[in-house]
Amino acid sequence: MPDHDPPRSSVPESRNVPKKRTRLSLVWFIPILAAVVGAWVAVTRVLAEGPTITITMKSAEGLEAGKTKIHYNGVDIGTVSKIELSPDHQRVILTAQMAPKTEEFLVADTKFWVVRPRISGANVSGLGTLISGAYIGVEIGSSQEEKRVFAALETPPVITGDIPGRFFTLKTADLGSLDTGTPIYFRRVQVGQVASYALDKDGKDLTVRVFVQAPYDQYVNPNTRFWHASGIDVSLSASGLTVQTQSVLSILIGGVAFETAASEPVLPPAEANAVFTLYANRTEAFNPPPRNPQTYVLNFKESVRGLTVGAPVEFHGIPIGAVTDVRAQIDLKTFEFSVPVTISLDPTRLGVRVVDASAGIDLESMRRRLIDSLIAHGARAQLATGNLLTGSAYVSIDFFPGAPPATVDWSQKPPQIPTTPGQFQSTEATVENIIKKLDKVPFQEIGEDLQKAIAQLNTTLVSAQGTLTSARGTLDNTSALTEPNSSQVQQIGNTLQEVSRAARSLRVLADYLERHPEALLRGKAGEAK
Questions:
Q1: Do residue 182 and residue 264 come from a single domain?
Q2: What is the per-residue pLDDT for 528?
Q3: 97, 116, 151 — which closes off a domain?
Q4: Which of 63, 124, 228, 338 is geometrically suited to a Cys-Cys bond with 68, CB 3.0 to 4.6 A?
Q5: Cβ within 8 Å of residue 277, ≥6 positions away
Q6: C-alpha span between 462 and 298 (Å, rounded)
Q7: Are 286 and 264 within 8 A, CB to CB?
C-alpha cells in the first residue's frame, strides 16, 4: 500500500517570537530627571546671580568676603565673594557677585569706593558704618562701553552725577586750607564745594576741581575771579577798620569765593571745566592784570631787611608793580657790597590816559623819554617801611629835588633806575652827624669854666653882702642927720631894697647853676629854645 503524506492542516503554525524589551529602564528616569532638574537649577541660579566683577584697591580694611555689600542709593546690588592680594602684594583684589540685571551699570566710567567714617572739609560721612560696617559705594556712569575690572577710588566723590550744576578747574600755587568738601561762596551764600585737588606733574601748581550747583553756576563767566576766602581780612584805611569774612565756617575750615566785577561786561556763562586762577585774596583777584609789564633793576647799598618777592612798588602811593627778585652782589674791583632788586612795573595801573596820540607814535620811545624826564626832575626809588609791627618794606618811587643828577642807561638789560637812601638810613645818618658834632663839644673845659664862674659869683655875692652892711650903717648915720619922713631917707630905703633883691636873685642863680650846670648850654628847662 503506497504511502501517502497526511494532508496538511490549514491552521497556521505557531512560532516562538521573543518579547521586545525597552532599552531604557524605568529605573533610569529618576537620575535623568534629577540631572535635568539640577541643570535647570544651575542655569536659573547663574542667571539670577548676575555678572561677576573685579575691583582693585590699596587696602581691604573693614571688608569681609561673603558679608561686605555693594550699595547704590541704599540698595544692595552685589556682594563681595572673595578677597586676595595681587601677585606683587601691592594691592588688594576683590571679586564681587553682582545682582541680576546689573549689566547696564557696569560701564567704563562707573566708579567704586569704600564707604568708611570720614571727616573732610565741612563734610562728615559714613557714620552709619560704625554700626553696620564698611561697604562699597558705586556711582553709575553714562558710558556705552561695558567693563568688568575696576579700580576703586581712594576717596569717595563729594559730588555725584545726579546733582545739577557744573564743574570748574582752578589753578593755584598754594592749596592753603582747602580740602575735599570745602565750601564755595557767592556773595556769602554757599553754592558748591571743592570736589578734588591734585598736584601737577611739574610740581609747580595744583589743580583744584570745584562744583557749583545750579542755578548759581550761571553766574560764572570768563571774567569771574576766584579767591581764597579763609580766615579774616582786616584792613585799616582812612575810613576806619574794616573786617571782611565769608562766614564763621570759612574761618574754621577755609573756603573759596567767586564774583564778577560790576565794571566788567556781562558775558555768557563759562563752559564746564573752564580753567580759572585761584588768587590769594579778594584784593589781588580784582587788581587789573598787567598789560605791558616792564622790568627794571634798583641797586641798593643799604639793608633791604623786610623786602620780599611780591612786595609792592608804589609811585606817589599808587601801586604800579611788584618786586620779582632780591639778590646780593659784590664788586670784585672795589669789594663794594650791594643788593640789586628786580621790579616789574605796570604803568597802566596809574590810571593815566594818553590823549592826542597819533597813529604812528613810537610808544617805546615815548616811554623812555617819559622816564628820563621823571628822573631829571628828581624821581628816585627808595626803600620804605610798610608796617612797623611786621617790619615789612616796599619800594617807593617819588620826587627828591635835592637828589644828585642821574641818568638811565637804556643799553642795559634790564635798565637800572637810580635810588636814594631810605628814610631809616637818612635818619641814621642825621643822628650820626649829630653825635659826631656832640663829640667835638669840649664838655670838660666848659665844666671847668663853669666852676670858675660859680666861684667868682660866690665872691661877688660876698662882696655884695659887705656892701649891703656898709649901706645899712650909712643909712643909720643918715637917719640921725635927717628927719624920719624926709625924701632922702625914702630914696635910700628903696635903693637898699633893690640891692637886697638883686643879691637874692644872684644867690638863686648860683644855686640853680650849681645843681644844673648844663643850663648854660641848653637853657633853663621848660623855656622855649
A1: yes
A2: 46
A3: 151
A4: 63
A5: 170, 171, 172, 225, 226
A6: 71
A7: no
What is the structure's pLDDT at 225?
92
Pairing of strands 256-259, 183-186: parallel
207 and 83 within one domain: no
Q: Which residue shows C-alpha cell 545726579?
A: 162
Q: 157 preceded by cis ω (within 30°)?
A: no
Residue 115 sits in the same domain as residue 243: no
What sections of 303-442 are H helices per DSSP?
363-376, 423-440
The span from the CA of 173 to the CA of 206, in Å, is 6
For residues 76 and 177, state if they share a domain: no
Confidence of residue 456 (pLDDT cuts 50, 70, 90): confident
Between 458 and 223, name the one with better pLDDT: 223
- The H or E element containing residue 452 is helix 443-481
| Higher pLDDT, residue 365 or 258 | 258
pLDDT by residue (tens digit) across 227-246?
988 756 665 544 455 666 65
What are φ and ψ of residue 369, in 5° steps?
Answer: -65, -35
pLDDT tier at 208, thresholds 50, 70, 90? very high
- Angstrom distance (rounded) from CA 246 to CA 249: 8
Q: Using an 8 Å Cβ cutoff, are 119 and 85 in contact? A: no
How far apart CA 278 and CA 180 sit, in angstroms, is: 16
Indicate whether 186 pLDDT > 70.
Answer: yes
Query: Where does a domain end: 437, 463, 489?
Result: 437
Residue where the block lists cell 560696617: 133
248 and 118 co-located in one domain: no
Which residues constitute the domain of residue 128?
A: 47-151
Asked whether residue 344 falls in the same domain as residue 420, the answer is yes
Do 428 and 461 reside in the same domain of the chain? no
H-helix or E-strand spanning residue 415: none
State the cell numbers at 463.
Answer: 662882696
- CA distances 176 to 183, 199, 388, Å, are 14, 13, 26
